[in-house]
Write a structure and sequence with these properties.
mainly beta; four-stranded mixed sheet; 15 strands; about 40% strand; rod-shaped
């Protein structure tokens, strides 16, 4: 009231006052403005309408198949979009050639040209090698692969079969909400130095919740029969054979 004191009687004087938008929730509001002088006299209330505009979006976790494009539909990208006539300022694009996590930045724009940028979590996956656990927000990728028998035999002799499988499969695991990498361990490895089909099982663990996700990888041990060192001359004994053969 001190700012409005000493106003001469019956004279009109203009003043300014600020109404903080942060004091209101988004949407329309009716505010009554009342003038009070130093003696406590009050003016008639003057109602005004305020519209507090809000522009924001709550991103959804995106899963994009390897080699495909990300959706540009707001309903697919966001759980909730707040604002008036909100659209994407420009189409989204990502690198979907590599399996794993990445952020995509989506710029929202409303009818008043106000802009806000939201980060959307994107998970690129392969339908054959990637598994998801939406309860724990975890993903684990472990592809199927094959080995030459000679390499498996050598690793078996060296006692490094687990290392051989882990290196060749190259598993990946991450938090699908923020991309945090998850530790992975090979918990079962059936591979043997014999021609055939085997299974290796990988497990990724969320350290913050002790939950885990598992994935089996099919492994084939193959090869061809061949001379390791071919001699310059091959000599065969004479033998009688049936002429029908």
């Amino acid at each position: 009231l001190l700012d409005y004191a000493d106003v001469p009687f019956n004279e009109v004087q203009n003043y300014q006052a600020k109404i903080e938008g942060k004091l209101f929730s988004a949407g329309k509001h009716i505010v009554s403005i009342v003038g009070i002088d130093e003696y406590g006299s009050r003016s008639v209330a003057k109602p005004i309408e305020l519209t507090i505009n809000e522009l924001s979006g709550e991103p959804k976790i995106q899963k994009v198949k390897q080699g495909e494009a990300i959706s540009n539909d707001l309903k697919n990208l966001f759980k909730v979009v707040k604002g008036t006539n909100v659209t994407l300022k420009s189409p989204l694009s990502i690198d979907s050639s590599v399996i794993g996590f990445q952020w995509a930045e989506a710029t929202l724009i409303d009818n008043q040209q106000k802009e806000v940028t939201e980060k959307i979590p994107v998970n690129v996956y392969n339908s054959e090698s990637t598994v998801f656990d939406d309860v724990t927000n975890s993903a684990l990728d472990a592809k199927n692969t094959s080995f030459d028998l000679v390499d498996v035999r050598q690793s078996d002799q060296e006692g490094t079969l687990d290392e051989l499988v882990y290196k060749k499969v190259a598993p990946k695991a991450w938090n699908i909400a923020d991309g945090t990498e998850l530790p992975i361990e090979l918990i079962a490895n059936e591979i043997k130095p014999i021609l055939g089909s085997y299974v290796a099982t990988f497990k990724a663990t969320r350290e913050d919740s002790s939950t885990n996700i598992q994935k089996n990888s099919d492994i084939v041990v193959g090869g061809v029969l061949k001379f390791k060192e071919v001699p310059e001359n091959l000599d065969y004994k004479s033998a009688k054979i049936n002429q029908k053969i």
